[in-house]
TrEMBL record:
InterPro entries tied to this protein: Imm7
Organism taxonomic ancestry: Bacteria, Bacillati, Actinomycetota, Actinomycetes, Kitasatosporales
Protein name (Swiss-Prot/TrEMBL): Imm7 family immunity protein
Domain of life: Bacteria
Amino acid sequence: MFEYHGWITVRESAVDDDDDFRLRQVVDELRVRIASMASPYLLDLRWMNGEPFIHVGGNSNHRSSPDVVGLFEHVAKIAPGSYGLLHVLDDEDPGHENEVRVLRLARGTVTQHTEALLSPCVPTLEDPFGV
């Protein structure tokens, strides 16, 4: 099982005065990438109060589709001022089967962390098997 929930505030750079033209180019490129992902789950890019945001959420049998981790890494590369979080529960991730992981996007880098508030999954979220 691969469950995920996340968001990204898309910013062209970490400077407070983004280049509006370049930001619109980045958003257009992201729209194309998101459309090509063809996800049946939540995968949304929209402008709110003059800023672009991406929201994702889903629960698939395996990590392979859609590639939301790849989307976060792509945003880090093309819009290094962006920031956001992706919470992931992946029971096929060796060494992390009993953890909710958080991918943090900040300043052009995606890092992985254990979500202490939801881990370990057993017994924090679920009872042990057979109880």
